[in-house]
Amino acid sequence: MRVFRTLVLSLLLVSAGLTASEPLDGLAEWIEGERERWEIPGLALAIVRADEVLLAQGFGYLDLERSREVDANTQFGIASLSKAMTATALGLLVDQGRLDWDDRVIDHLPGFRLSDPWVTEQVTVRDLLAHRVGVGRLFGNRLTFMPAASRDEVMAALRHHDFEQPFRQGYVYSNAMYSVAGILLEAVSGQAWEDFIEQHLFEPLGMTRSNTRLSSLDHNAARPHQEIRGELVEISRRDWSWGSPAAAVNSTVSDLARWMRFNLAGELAGQSLFSSDVLEAIHAPSNLIGFDADYPGVTAYGLGWGLGRYQSFHVLRHGGATDGINSLVWLLPELDLGIVVSANRFTGFNTALAREVVDRVAGLETTDWSSQLLEQELESRAEAAAAREEVNEQRQSGTQPSHPLETFVADYQHPLYGQVEVFLHEGELKLKLWQDDSQTLRLEHWHHDTFKARWSNPAQREKFVWFSLGEDGLPGELNVRFTLRPLALEEGVYPADYTRDVRYLKQ
Hints:
Layout: H1 2-15, H2 27-37, E1 42-49, E2 52-60, E3 76-77, H3 82-95, H4 117-122, H5 125-129, H6 137-142, H7 151-157, H8 175-189, H9 193-205, E4 225-228, E5 231-234, H10 244-247, E6 250-251, H11 253-265, H12 276-283, E7 287-292, E8 295-301, E9 306-310, E10 313-322, E11 325-332, E12 337-343, H13 349-362, H14 369-393, E13 410-414, E14 418-425, E15 428-433, E16 440-447, E17 450-455, E18 462-469, E19 475-483, E20 499-506
């Protein structure tokens, strides 16, 4: 099959009048110009084809101070690109006969519980990895702000979560379910997820600069950046402790070139981690997503991989976004082609770059994807800014809280989201989530009993909270609007089309 794919690629190049080296001529210079146009501090790119690394190179700098240039060995937090690695780690156990994709989760984790007892009994390993449980996006992704939580605590909280879609009848992207998958891996293997990934994936694949912990980053690691109120600034790294199986891997494009070569060929340097059946199961569709206007055709999700098309080619792909770092990987088996790019700010340029590479390698008609996507990004940001201003204009002037600030001071509780402490500090109301000092927000009066809550970390931006009065006329409930997907992050967390209002009861 691999020889056939290579032959197809050669015929494509011949039909386009290209040699194997010509498609990428001038690409590095083009990337550097576009990096500056998109105002990206630094990025790295690797391209592999037919088990050959065509390019592995860095562009720009680790930070705004230009303290060091990005290179192919610069570490980036690759966030959700980690999901395919967790699925692959479980595939090792499947190949060893210690696990089956269709094993029930409760047979390995008796403490696993969801709000529906019947669904709890039915959820399989495949369900966790294919995002088809129906639980976890609004809950699981927002609880990534819980650096002090353990994976067991998060799994225990899931029993209080409502289903966002019926079980196995939709696609609900869930970091929380991948956290459960990591706990399951630990239960079956007897090793911590972090140690298992490093020992059984990174070591045999020669991914020597990849790791699973923030503490393992070294001096050649990209710093995250975000535009806040019109200024691009360096921000803090995100600690994914409890959600490590979903998003904690740090890697380089040189290492990810090896990862892509393994996934394309099923082996690396003659070494295969498991049988071809296991890799086929990981790459096969397990959950229908729908239709994607940007990639015409049916889209689906495998086990840690998104599946779709670009032009006429089948693509396995995934994005990875953590605070101020954005990564993208594309595999095109028909071309025996793999592309990975990481940038140290949120940017749509990654997609433009992936399309540019495919167009060049496949000899397709040239399209200025970078200009098209930059224009779309600027338009979406302008629309988000206008929508944000509409929210601001709805603020009612001349109001005040219904009671003195000290009346709102109390502990408020929610079975899923835990405890919120509202307290006074130097005359200001503050709110602390999850009994964690690092998750403290300052409450600024908005109108009536509604407040705009600002995180101490400016990269997390702000959210709205409001108090409701009880039968006695005193504050009895605290409502927090958690935002999952703002219209445009760099224009602010609100407005958003994907939120969850959580009601905490006064204790």
